[in-house]
Specification:
This protein has about 90 residues and is of the alpha+beta class. It has one domain: 2-Layer Sandwich (TTHA1013/TTHA0281-like). The protein has 2 helices and 4 strands. A hairpin with a 4-residue loop joins strand 1 and strand 2.
Length: about 90
């Protein structure tokens, strides 16, 4: 059985990038474990643009499919401090 993803593989499921706002440093942070991408930016718009900028090259380096039809879903998750406040 071969578990290697061929570069021409047509991925219909979007990659998921989890996004948080890190209040300590005042930056937005995105992490996509599938693509091995983590980056930050001062605004949400700049963050999504940065992910789209670096994701194709990182995907290629990791032998993952990424082309003009590739989708990335940006999913906002609560940062630790807001989660702690909500639990109180």
């Amino acid at each position: 059985m071969n578990n290697v993803i061929h570069a021409a593989f047509n991925r219909s499921v979007p990659y998921v990038a989890e996004v948080i706002f890190d209040a300590e440093c005042g930056m937005w942070v995105a992490t996509c474990e599938e693509l091995s991408v983590t980056t930050e930016a001062p605004s949400y718009e700049a963050l999504t643009a940065r992910v789209w900028e670096i994701a194709p090259e990182i995907a290629e380096m990791n032998g993952l499919a990424f082309d003009a039809n590739t989708r990335i879903q940006f999913r906002h998750v609560e940062d630790a401090s807001s989660h702690h406040r909500a639990a109180m």
